[in-house]
């Protein structure tokens, strides 16, 4: 009776009969509703239209319930603080992307403002994570330009629109200079196209419920990638720190080529630029450390980056640093907003791969940072809706000359610490940037680029701290450490786009290798319980005499099922294949002996005289019989029961060694799917152990796996569902009962 039970995770204590098993195996999944049926259900429904409107414009849900008295002051203070941070970082990251500074201001304004409408959380300030509607008030993440995304875009502008494409001769001479106006216009058009395509990818992935794609970017992979990207950022800004001009390099090993060129041009360093950058970095670093140390006492962090920009711009304008000391400055920053421009669709095919990489990396950074805040404040992140919101911000922002954005840890922490409660804080921050674009931006034309480089380099401190992961991962998980190192090295050597692809492939390979090399164990029973554990790890677990319980820590599929079979035979303590080979040789030898005996008997009967009567049979003495048949040959006399089948030879009758166990239980509780290859190997396992007179049982097999076995024609007259049990203990009870019954009855076991 116990043999008729089968494991089910949904109903673990229910006993299923043979009829139930057949019904489960033949049960078809419920039919998916047709498009016509869906349209019929949702057609012209006011409630459906309202839910769709709230889904795509979530601010309509939470804005009417906005508690003005409780939240408004906190949102204003938070928005003003974040807006002040956006201003210098927007200018700096535009420089990092190889674009005019004003594009950084655009990228700090439009996406933040758009996320107010499309963001799913009433707490987030632009582009960041998607929270479920109706969640509790929590501080929000702050989107905008991000160093890693900016350097990815910068590598694209250097490779697809390098400065040498825009060289022009001076007054008809052989001297050539770069037409920066044409170059910047071409790069802005290129980046806008990439940003629009990035948004399309993100929206499409979100609508298709592909938000899970980011799960293939493990935390060690993301941290190793961002650390390597920070090295790219650092090297790219050294030219602005030393005040030297470099060629534009892209592709694999471009980082090392750029670094070597910087080292070669160190004698040409502009001392004024270097001194300006060092002073700015020291000042910004010290004040940021003070902000961190006295965060609890300060109402808001000291905006040292904005202060540095204002002071350095004033000094540069008053002293005329560009003319007297050759210190490079930002240049003209046009005021006002520009009309939307349609992207260059013909370039989509050329930049599709890079746009997809930017879409995935930007979303991965966003969702990783969002999960940190979600765990801290107890809310849930909807990955698919966040993809849609982030994609819409990038898609629409691309029409207004923005570059792709992500979220920043520093800005998010400031927004959290200064009392930001809702997306209203994002609107306030965007208004601060808007005022800068309209009226104040043109005042920063004399801002030294060395100051922006200093801001970028100091903000890399948090990413460089990720080198501490090496020590932590060395102690905790060597495979994750390998993923981190390979990602870091691949990104440094192959550049950001190819490095990301190589890192993802390596990360997936580690998963395959882990499933190919799982932990195999023999389980034993803990006395007076129905608990079974690895006998090598638990001293109280003892093997059940005559039964081997085999377990694997991984599922079974084509890549590891043969290793599973080999480990099972090895753990059983007997050379199964060798024993089967010996049995075949013994059977072959026995067959030859029987044929020889039959020939000798036929020959003997020809020699003997004919029978004189029906009951007369001459008898020969033993020595005469030996002379006829030959010594040492056993003759099997066939009696009247010639039609009966002779008993099957056994290992004992063949004189072969017998296994020290009579049954094997395969623990299938870790198995969540099987394929055709694994089904074939499982059949071979049943066949081989049956050859050496060992019964095989399966315990803990999920119903889904049982259904897959049924569809794969696993069951037959030799392998039935009676071999499957809901647990190891249920299989043990059945084996004990069967052995007891066999000892009482003389009948052979089934």
Automatic annotation (TrEMBL):
<feature type="transmembrane region" description="Helical">
    <location>
        <begin position="423"/>
        <end position="440"/>
    </location>
</feature>
<dbReference type="GO" id="GO:0055085">
    <property type="term" value="P:transmembrane transport"/>
</dbReference>
<feature type="domain" description="STAS">
    <location>
        <begin position="537"/>
        <end position="735"/>
    </location>
</feature>
<dbReference type="GO" id="GO:0016020">
    <property type="term" value="C:membrane"/>
</dbReference>
<feature type="transmembrane region" description="Helical">
    <location>
        <begin position="355"/>
        <end position="375"/>
    </location>
</feature>
<feature type="transmembrane region" description="Helical">
    <location>
        <begin position="190"/>
        <end position="217"/>
    </location>
</feature>
<dbReference type="Pfam" id="PF00916">
    <property type="entry name" value="Sulfate_transp"/>
</dbReference>
<feature type="coiled-coil region">
    <location>
        <begin position="576"/>
        <end position="607"/>
    </location>
</feature>
<feature type="transmembrane region" description="Helical">
    <location>
        <begin position="387"/>
        <end position="411"/>
    </location>
</feature>
<feature type="transmembrane region" description="Helical">
    <location>
        <begin position="484"/>
        <end position="513"/>
    </location>
</feature>
<dbReference type="InterPro" id="IPR011547">
    <property type="entry name" value="SLC26A/SulP_dom"/>
</dbReference>
<feature type="transmembrane region" description="Helical">
    <location>
        <begin position="271"/>
        <end position="290"/>
    </location>
</feature>
<keyword id="KW-0175">Coiled coil</keyword>
<dbReference type="InterPro" id="IPR036513">
    <property type="entry name" value="STAS_dom_sf"/>
</dbReference>
<dbReference type="Pfam" id="PF01740">
    <property type="entry name" value="STAS"/>
</dbReference>
<protein>
    <submittedName>
        <fullName>Solute carrier family 26 member 6</fullName>
    </submittedName>
</protein>
<keyword id="KW-0812">Transmembrane</keyword>
<keyword id="KW-1133">Transmembrane helix</keyword>
<feature type="transmembrane region" description="Helical">
    <location>
        <begin position="302"/>
        <end position="319"/>
    </location>
</feature>
<dbReference type="InterPro" id="IPR001902">
    <property type="entry name" value="SLC26A/SulP_fam"/>
</dbReference>
<feature type="transmembrane region" description="Helical">
    <location>
        <begin position="91"/>
        <end position="118"/>
    </location>
</feature>
<dbReference type="InterPro" id="IPR002645">
    <property type="entry name" value="STAS_dom"/>
</dbReference>
<keyword id="KW-0472">Membrane</keyword>
């Amino acid at each position: 009776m116990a043999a008729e039970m089968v494991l089910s995770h949904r109903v673990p204590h229910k006993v299923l009969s043979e009829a139930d098993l057949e019904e489960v195996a033949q049960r078809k999944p419920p039919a998916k509703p047709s498009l016509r049926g869906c349209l019929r259900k949702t057609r012209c429904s006011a409630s459906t239209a309202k839910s769709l409107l709230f889904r795509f414009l979530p601010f309509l849900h939470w804005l009417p319930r906005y508690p003005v008295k409780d939240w408004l002051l906190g949102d204003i203070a938070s928005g003003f603080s974040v807006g002040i941070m956006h201003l210098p970082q927007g200018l700096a990251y535009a420089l990092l992307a190889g674009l005019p500074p004003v594009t950084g201001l655009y990228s700090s304004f439009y996406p933040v403002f758009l996320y107010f409408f499309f963001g799913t959380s009433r707490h987030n300030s632009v582009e960041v994570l998607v929270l479920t509607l109706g969640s509790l008030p929590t501080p929000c993440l702050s989107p905008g330009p991000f160093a890693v995304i900016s350097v990815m875009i910068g590598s694209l502008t250097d490779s697809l629109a390098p400065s040498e494409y825009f060289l022009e001769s001076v007054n008809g001479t052989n001297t050539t200079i770069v037409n920066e106006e044409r170059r910047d216009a071409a790069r802005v058009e290129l980046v806008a196209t990439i940003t629009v395509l990035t948004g399309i990818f993100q929206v499409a992935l979100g609508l298709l419920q592909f938000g899970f794609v980011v799960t293939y970017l493990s935390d060690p992979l993301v941290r190793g990638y961002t650390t390597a990207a920070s090295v790219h950022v650092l090297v790219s800004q050294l030219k602005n720190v030393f005040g030297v001009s470099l060629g534009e390099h892209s592709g694999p090993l471009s980082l090392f080529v750029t670094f070597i060129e910087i080292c070669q041009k160190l004698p040409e360093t502009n001392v004024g630029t270097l001194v300006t950058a060092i002073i700015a970095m020291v000042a910004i670093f010290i004040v940021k450390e003070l902000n961190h140390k006295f965060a609890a006492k300060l109402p808001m962090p000291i905006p040292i980056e904005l202060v540095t920009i204002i002071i350095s711009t004033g000094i540069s304008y008053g002293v005329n640093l560009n003319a007297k000391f050759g210190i490079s400055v930002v240049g003209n920053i046009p005021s006002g907003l520009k009309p939307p421009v349609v992207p260059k669709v013909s370039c989509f095919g050329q930049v599709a791969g890079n746009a997809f990489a930017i879409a995935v990396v930007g979303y991965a950074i966003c969702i990783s940072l969002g999960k940190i805040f979600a765990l801290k404040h107890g809310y849930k992140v909807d990955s698919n809706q966040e993809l849609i919101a982030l994609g819409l911000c990038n898609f629409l922002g691309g029409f207004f000359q923005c570059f792709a954005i992500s979220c920043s840890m520093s800005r998010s922490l400031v927004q959290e610490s200064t009392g930001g409660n809702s997306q209203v804080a994002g609107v306030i921050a965007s208004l601060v940037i808007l005022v800068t674009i309209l009226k104040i931006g043109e005042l920063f034309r004399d801002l030294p680029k060395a100051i922006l480089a200093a801001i970028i380099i100091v903000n890399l401190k948090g990413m460089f701290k990720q080198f501490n992961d090496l020590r932590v991962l060395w102690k905790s998980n060597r495979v994750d450490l390998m993923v981190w190192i390979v990602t870091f090295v691949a990104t440094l050597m192959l550049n950001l786009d190819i490095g990301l692809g190589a890192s993802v492939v390596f990360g997936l390979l580690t998963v395959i290798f882990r499933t190919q090399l799982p932990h195999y164990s023999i389980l034993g029973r803990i006395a007076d319980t129905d608990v079974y554990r690895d006998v090598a790890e638990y001293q109280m677990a003892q093997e059940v005499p005559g039964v081997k319980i085999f377990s694997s820590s991984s599922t079974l599929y084509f890549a590891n099922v043969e290793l599973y079979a080999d480990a099972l035979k090895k753990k059983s303590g007997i050379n199964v294949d060798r024993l089967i080979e010996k049995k075949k040789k013994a059977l072959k030898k026995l067959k030859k002996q029987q044929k020889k005996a039959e020939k000798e008997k036929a020959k003997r009967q020809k020699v003997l005289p004919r029978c004189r009567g029906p009951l007369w049979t001459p008898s020969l003495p033993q020595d005469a019989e030996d002379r006829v048949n030959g010594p040492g040959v056993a003759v099997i006399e066939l009696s009247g029961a010639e039609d009966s089948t002779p008993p099957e030879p056994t290992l004992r009758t063949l004189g072969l060694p017998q296994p020290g166990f009579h049954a094997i239980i395969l623990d299938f509780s870790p198995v969540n799917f099987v394929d055709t290859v694994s089904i074939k190997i499982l059949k071979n396992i049943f066949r081989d152990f049956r050859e050496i007179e060992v019964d095989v049982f399966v315990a803990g097999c999920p119903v889904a796996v049982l259904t897959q076995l049924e569809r794969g024609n696993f069951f037959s007259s030799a392998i039935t569902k009676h071999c499957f049990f809901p647990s190891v203990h249920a299989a043990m009870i059945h084996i004990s009962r069967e052995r007891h019954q066999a000892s009482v009855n003389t009948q052979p076991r089934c």
